[in-house]
Predict the 3D structure of the following.
Amino acid sequence: PPGAARPPAASKWVRLNVGGTYFVSTRQTLCREPKSFLCRLCCQDGPELGSDKDETGAYLIDRDPTYFGPILNYLRHGKLIINKELAEEGVLEEAEFYNIASLVRLVKERIRDNENRTSQGPVKHVYRVLQCQEEELTQMVSTMSDGWKFEQLISIGSSYNYGNEDQAEFLCVVSRELNNSTNGIVKEPSEKAKV
């Protein structure tokens, strides 16, 4: 009969009100992590948690909705996807609050990787200027030690030889990265380019 009470539509779908933003998901998704806060909230309707609903019947969670997206998506497909503008620390905070251990581990790994990348800081370079004559150029560039990179060639005119032809002279600028593992000590290559 039309007046009969229908089973609640929430049987499969769950509405969450996270800090004023609504999210809709399934119980199956929210209970992907059995020990998580979301699983306790939605799958064990205990009297103590059952009261935290707003007027629409959505579960009220007093957390920042910005960081809830990556949490919910992780429960949906098991991947950690964080938009560039979101701070990973914020996602970590929420993962810890919702007690999703595997996600906490993933975010910590991501933060550690990023720190390793950024702790190297801007790459420092050592520059060296070598002066050589035109005929020495090829040999000098081809015998540069490993790690040195050719940067720039500056012609500085010619030096007059006593022979018939002028020899063009060049300044050759080379650089190499300053390796962090040496703690700022530049290991000079033993064989210097011809000067």
